[in-house]
Amino acid sequence: MDELFTVEIHHQGHFVENPVRYVEGFVNHVDDCDPEKWSKLEVEDIVERLGYPKHKLLWYRIPGLGLEEGLREL
Questions:
Q1: d(CA 47, CA 56)
Q2: Phi/psi of residue 23, nearest 5 degrees
């Protein structure tokens, strides 16, 4: 079995430039995520539990990269 991981979710903030940053808002952590079960559906479920409606634009950052080069739309 793969190691479980934690996801850090930033929400209710906004992006600014020079340098690119996500500011204000809140940070939540979701522990014990299983890489064998991890999918877009899992992410959508977490977002829904945070009180957001479906079909919102979602972004993720590739671990080890900054926002400029590592930010991707889900």
A1: 9
A2: -120, 160
